[in-house]
Design brief:
Elements (H helix, E strand, L loop, with lengths): L1 H50 L5 H7 L6 H17 L21 E7 L4 E6 L6 E9 L2 E7 L13
Antiparallel strand pairs: 1-2, 2-3, 3-4
Length: 161
């Protein structure tokens, strides 16, 4: 009888430990996959700007990107339009998504992710001092990019490169 009770308790604890381990692993996978939305977008953006035929093609690319919120797209357009009104020739003298003129050619990797706020800090693969903040939100039943660089990112949350 004592052996059955001990064996039952051991099995109970082992099963609970296994379930807790799976829950922790699922939570970690969920967090990583949430932040991966930011990473995939920024790496796709780097690939795009490395091959874009003209600067005006950027908004067309962003406008059709399904991972971006409408708020992101509208803010980007306003920033660009305001810059061209102020200086019709030059416009904005830096990329608002990257908050920089230069960028890491090989893309980014995740540095930090704050699940509570949705802020993801990315760091350049070939330019380790280059960082950019991306904001993700859960909208329309999926994770989307709502901010990057200076777009919808408060100044105190913007990465300092």
């Amino acid at each position: 009888m004592k052996h059955r009770i001990c064996l039952s308790l051991i099995l109970f604890f082992c099963c609970n430990l296994h379930l807790m381990s799976q829950t922790n692993q699922n939570t970690q996978n969920k967090q990583t996959s949430n932040a991966d939305v930011a990473l995939k977008f920024m790496n796709a953006y780097i690939n795009f700007i490395n091959t874009r035929p003209e600067l005006k093609a950027t908004y067309k690319w962003l406008k059709t990107n399904p991972v971006l919120t409408e708020k992101f797209k509208a803010t980007y357009k306003k920033i660009e339009d305001d810059a061209y009104k102020a200086d019709p020739i030059l416009g904005l003298d830096f990329d608002p998504i990257l908050n920089a003129q230069d960028y890491p050619d090989k893309g980014f990797e995740i540095s930090t992710y704050d699940e509570a706020s949705g802020y993801v800090t990315l760091v350049g693969i070939d330019l380790e001092k280059f960082k950019v903040t991306v904001k993700i939100v859960f909208q329309n039943n999926k994770w989307m990019v709502d901010g990057a660089g200076i777009i919808n990112i408060p100044e105190d949350k913007q990465a300092k490169s």
